[in-house]
Design goal:
Elements (H helix, E strand, L loop, with lengths): L2 E8 L3 H12 L4 E5 L6 H6 L1 H20 L14 H25 L3 E4 L1 E6 L2 E6 L2 E12 L3 E3 L12 E2 L1 H4 L8 E5 L3 H12 L3 E5 L11 H13 L3 E3 L2 E9 L2 E8 L6 E5 L1 E4 L3 E3 L6 H4 L22 E3 L10 H15 L13 E3 L4 E6 L2 H7 L3 E7 L4 H6 L5 E7 L5 E8 L2 H13 L4 H5 L10 H9 L8
Parallel strand pairs: 1-2, 1-6, 2-3, 6-17, 8-15, 9-10, 9-15, 10-11
Antiparallel strand pairs: 4-5, 5-6, 7-16, 12-13, 13-14, 18-19, 19-22, 20-21, 21-22
Helix pairs in contact: 1-9, 3-4, 3-6
The structure holds flavin-adenine dinucleotide (FAD) and nicotinamide-adenine-dinucleotide (NAD).
Length: 467
């Protein structure tokens, strides 16, 4: 007799495991299928969590090396124990992965270990170490996530030529790290290794870094990263990476073509985006349609072209962010349970966890211009914020974009210390359709960095107090 469930979720990343928990809360009999030995997907095992642990540890190292003396704390030059630092990162991953395991048990979710393949509506085959079994289910959610995008002719060995996965576990600090792609991964992991002592060169195909982020913020971000010692080669492409002796020879060319140049590096990090992962799922055989980017095609209720089969997270359209997948996981579980699950794609925060951090929500100035929306801008620099002055974390500013007629907040972009925590008051404001005046009239505790958010909102009507 095959096992029978109300819902089978394939993949236990932030999309899949959250979906499974919400469905169990709603009274469904739920199973998850995971091909990896641990739960948590890319995010917990080789993504958000280990990268943030390394960002945290390397930031502390840099503080100890260069900044504590400014505060009158002299500890001498800190010594790096990379093996211990990696163990710190692994402990963070283990804690999170075990946390998901606990939640699966607590919610009575049945785990199946193996590769899940869809045989058709209501049937999932699991190929595990001990053979193959078939599970019957009323509904299926595909949450198989994404994989790194590769570049033709560049052979990744995860030792010298690495993706983010290899860059999270280098055995020694490279002298020279060449990063291909000035996106989030390139700049976060580039920052980690620069802080630990590597010379970091970032090669970007476009004429700007972090495409998609507000251009003014991105320009400031690049200036700050350059000041920290990161080097940028914009409008440039890498055409070849060759091993030579102990090192690597990297051939670059102007993006539009031209004279090639050869650069040396010890390690090359390929960080040019991610692609949906559907290997072994049997989409074609099951008749499940993809879109023109190879993602599983879904309607506004996350249903694929096959009734009863849904998809969420990195494997479908939208930003490849853990919290976007989580919210979709909740929404689809509610939809399957006959409730009104919904995700507001206009209010999904995006954070880059460098120092300073970048955080944004809503539209960028470029997007508003392109859509022909009349808007007002309010800005406030951290140099004028009391707490930032006291802490000497004055880099960056807050930028508000509000509708010119109604004052409704359309977007907010912050570059500065703790930006990733501060952005959420604006996200809540936007969910309630609030105006810049609503925020400007909300009392903020003093002295906090969040007062800069209030001042930027005041500045939309040119009435910031401390500027
Ligand atoms: P995934 O997390 O990719 O999980 C998919 C799961 O499905 C995997 O466990 C996989 O083994 C399993 N699977 C796939 N196919 C099958 C199959 N056929 N059968 C069984 N199991 C299968 N996002 C953020 O929001 N914040 C961050 O700070 C952040 N940092 C990141 C840092 C790095 C280095 C990387 C690489 C990504 C980062 N991301 C971050 C992105 C984030 O990790 C993804 O958006 C998120 O993990 C997507 O979740 P998901 O559930 O869709 O898929
Ligand atoms: P990305 O899309 O953020 O950046 C890729 C960069 O590579 C872009 O700037 C692009 O123009 C450039 N590029 C593409 N092809 C190139 C080429 N041939 N040569 C040089 N440059 C090239 O992708 P990523 O940094 O790999 O991150 C992947 C995904 O993971 C992102 O979608 C992101 O949302 C997610 N992520 C999020 C976080 C976070 O939320 N803090 C952290 C890490 C990753």
């Amino acid at each position: 007799m095959a096992d029978s469930f109300d819902l089978v979720v394939i993949g236990t990343g932030p999309g899949g495991y959250v979906c499974a928990i919400r469905a169990a809360q709603l009274g469904m009999k739920v199973a998850v299928v995971e091909k990896n030995p641990t739960f948590g997907g890319t995010c917990l095992n080789i993504g958000c969590i280990p990268s943030k642990a390394l960002l945290h540890a390397s930031e502390e190292f840099e503080k100890a090396a260069h900044h504590l003396s400014e505060l009158g704390i002299d500890i001498g030059a800190p010594k790096l124990d990379l093996a211990r630092l990696m163990a710190f990162k692994d402990e963070g991953v283990e804690g999170n992965v075990k946390g998901v395991e606990f939640l699966m048990k607590k919610n009575k979710i049945t785990p199946f270990q193996g590769v899940g393949r869809i045989l058709g509506a209501g049937k999932v085959e699991v190929a595990g170490e001990n053979g193959t079994q078939t599970i019957d289910t009323k509904a299926i959610v595909i949450a198989t996530g994404s994989d790194v995008a590769r570049l033709p002719g560049i052979d990744i060995d995860e030792k010298d030529i690495v993706t983010s996965t290899g860059a999270l576990s280098l055995e020694k600090v490279p002298e020279k790290l060449l990063v291909i792609g000035a996106g989030i991964i390139g700049l976060e992991l580039g920052s980690v290794w620069r802080r630990l002592g590597a010379q970091v060169i970032v090669v970007e195909f476009l004429d700007r870094i972090t495409p998609g982020m507000d251009a003014e913020i991105a320009k400031n971000f690049q200036r700050i990263l350059k000041k920290q010692g990161m080097e940028f080669l914009l409008s440039t492409k890498v055409t070849k990476v060759e091993k030579q002796g102990q090192g690597l020879k990297v051939t670059t060319e102007p993006a539009k073509g031209g004279e090639p140049k050869v650069l040396d590096a010890d390690v090359v990090l390929v960080a040019v985006g991610r692609v949906p992962y559907t290997e072994g799922l049997g989409l074609e055989e099951a008749g499940i349609r993809r879109d023109n980017k190879g993602r599983v095609d879904v309607d506004e209720h996350f249903q694929t072209s096959m009734p009863g089969i849904y998809a969420i997270g990195d494997v479908i359209r939208g930003p490849m962010l853990a919290h976007k997948g989580e919210d979709e996981g909740v929404a689809v579980a509610e939809i399957i349970a006959g409730k009104a699950g919904h995700v507001n794609y206009d209010v999904i925060p995006n954070v880059i966890y460098t120092s300073p951090e970048l955080a944004s929500v809503g539209k960028t100035e470029e997007e508003l211009k392109e859509a022909g929306v009349a808007y007002k801008v309010g800005k406030f620099p951290f140099t004028a914020n009391g707490r930032a002055k006291a802490n000497k974390t004055t880099e960056g500013f807050v930028k508000f974009l509000a509708d010119a007629k109604t004052d409704r907040v359309l977007g907010c972009h912050i570059i500065g210390a703790n930006a990733g925590e501060m952005i959420h008051e604006v996200a809540v404001l936007m969910e309630f359709g609030g105006s810049s005046e609503d925020l400007a009239r909300t009392c903020h505790a003093h002295p906090t960095l969040s007062e800069a958010v209030k001042e930027a909102a005041l500045s939309v009507e040119n009435r910031a107090i401390h500027m």
